[in-house]
């Protein structure tokens, strides 16, 4: 930024490697925000909460971060004489479950009370606040104003993106993508991270008020802009090359949006009842929620023509190049982490081992008599049941030890993890390690 010897990055967690000065803090704390923004001349406000998963159900926290936090940023800009604010918004300010084909910035805001989740509602309120602050005079800089604009990006992808793809990949790894939603004709937008970065930089430049011929009238001041790669595509078609490159399956069957919504509402109800536990690490993410059904199951894509005409935005990375870089990143990430079978394999083996142990040693209560009957049918005697458990346990221990020794050579950082996983699952885990060893060799 002009007039600033360094770039400041304001986060709740310290990133591992950034070529900038990091100021840690909480966006909901006015003092933290002021400490971070003091001395700046341009702010990129990217922070948000509640985009997906359990976060979506934390209404109070969503409003605190997305609305109150944005107010803190706006007030700090006025207080410290910051002349430019670029706000990263969302398609959800105009999309809420109704099809939009090649939309543009002339579309009205989606009715606040009709949003199916607090994220879209809060981001809409925050964006409108940001744009209304445009042109407000700075408190200690007579004659100067705060200029603001809003960038509305499509779903973001690329190396290091931590919102959309990590959840999709982790669910596919566990085999929890059993069907596609909507139909093959549904199209949505995506934007590669470098293209979004370009749009943000262009927007900040178009907020300058000292450009010859534009003094006091920045081009982007008070304006919203849709930003995408400009290549609408079905979400499941988009992620297929990535999942295929990672050896994860993508289902072939489709279900209607209406049916997916029923399922999503069940998860919404269940997780709402678990509200006090939403921040617990051990509580898994809901399978899907209503807003996510709309995002993948209904067509909604927009033109970036206004951004092209006013900001000079043209995607510099094509979708093919962006996906290639994304695939490379995720393959490298997979090779550095502990791989594992689907949740169904986990369930079958662990339930099987527990059932075998229970049928051999537990007293005849609850389901034990039924389990014991099945065991006797398979192994003929109590001795046979217990012997089968001993042999299975011995096999798992042996496979675990072999996995540990092999991992020490091909994946030393995860050797302990490979031992415990193979000890629990046996060959289904060892098979994945052998496959990795073959690639290394």
TrEMBL record:
Alphabetic keyword roster: Membrane, Oxidoreductase, Signal, Transmembrane, Transmembrane helix
Pfam families reported for this sequence: 3Beta_HSD, TMEM254
Keyword Transcription regulation applies: no
Occurrences of domain 3-beta hydroxysteroid dehydrogenase/isomerase (ranges): 22-254
The keyword Membrane is annotated on this UniProt entry: yes
UniProt-recorded Gene Ontology molecular function terms: oxidoreductase activity, acting on the CH-OH group of donors, NAD or NADP as acceptor
Transmembrane segments: 254-274, 343-362, 374-397
Position of the signal peptide: 1-23
Coiled coil start-end: none
Any single biological process term in GO: steroid biosynthetic process
Record-stated family: Belongs to the 3-beta-HSD family.
Protein name: 3-beta hydroxysteroid dehydrogenase/isomerase domain-containing protein
Organism: Gossypium armourianum
Lineage: Eukaryota, Viridiplantae, Streptophyta, Embryophyta, Tracheophyta
């Amino acid at each position: 930024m002009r007039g600033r010897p360094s770039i400041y990055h304001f986060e709740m967690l310290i990133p591992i490697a950034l070529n900038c000065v990091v100021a840690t803090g909480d966006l909901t704390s006015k003092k933290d925000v002021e400490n971070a923004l003091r001395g700046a001349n341009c702010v990129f406000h990217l922070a948000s909460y509640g985009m997906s998963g359990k976060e979506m159900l934390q209404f109070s926290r969503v409003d605190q971060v997305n609305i109150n936090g944005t107010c803190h940023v706006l007030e700090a800009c006025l207080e410290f004489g910051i002349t430019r604010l670029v706000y990263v918004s969302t398609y959800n300010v105009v999309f809420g479950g109704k099809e939009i084909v090649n939309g543009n910035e002339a579309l009205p805001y989606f009715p606040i009370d009709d949003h199916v989740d607090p994220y879209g509602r809060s981001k809409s309120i925050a964006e409108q606040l940001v744009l209304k602050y445009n042109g407000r005079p700075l408190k200690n800089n007579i004659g100067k104003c705060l200029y603001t604009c809003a960038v509305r990006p499509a779903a973001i992808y690329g190396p290091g993106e931590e919102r959309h793809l990590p959840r999709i990949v982790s669910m596919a790894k566990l085999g929890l993508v059993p069907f596609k939603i909507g139909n093959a004709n549904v199209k949505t937008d995506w934007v590669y991270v470098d293209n979004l970065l370009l749009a943000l930089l262009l927007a900040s430049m178009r907020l300058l008020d000292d450009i010859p011929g534009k003094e006091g009238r920045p081009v982007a001041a008070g304006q919203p802009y849709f930003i995408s790669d400009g290549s609408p595509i079905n979400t499941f078609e988009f992620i297929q090359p990535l999942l295929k490159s990672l050896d994860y399956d993508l289902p072939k069957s489709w279900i209607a949006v209406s049916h997916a919504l029923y399922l999503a509402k069940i998860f919404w109800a269940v997780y709402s009842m678990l509200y006090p536990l939403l921040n617990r690490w051990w509580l898994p993410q809901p399978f899907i929620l209503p807003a996510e059904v709309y995002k993948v199951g209904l067509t909604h894509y927009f033109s970036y023509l206004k951004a092209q005409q006013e900001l000079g935005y043209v995607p510099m990375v094509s979708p093919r190049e962006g996906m290639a870089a994304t695939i490379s990143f995720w393959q490298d990430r997979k090779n550095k982490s502990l791989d594992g079978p689907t949740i169904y394999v986990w369930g079958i083996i662990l339930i099987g081992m527990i059932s075998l142990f229970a049928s051999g040693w537990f007293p005849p209560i609850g389901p034990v008599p039924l389990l014991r009957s099945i065991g006797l049918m398979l192994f003929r005697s109590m001795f046979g049941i217990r012997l089968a458990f001993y042999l299975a346990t011995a096999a798992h221990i042996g496979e675990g030890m072999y996995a540990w020794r092999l991992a020490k050579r091909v994946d030393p950082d995860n050797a302990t993890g490979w031992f415990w996983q193979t000890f629990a699952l046996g060959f289904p885990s060892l098979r994945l390690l052998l496959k990795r060893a073959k690639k290394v060799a």
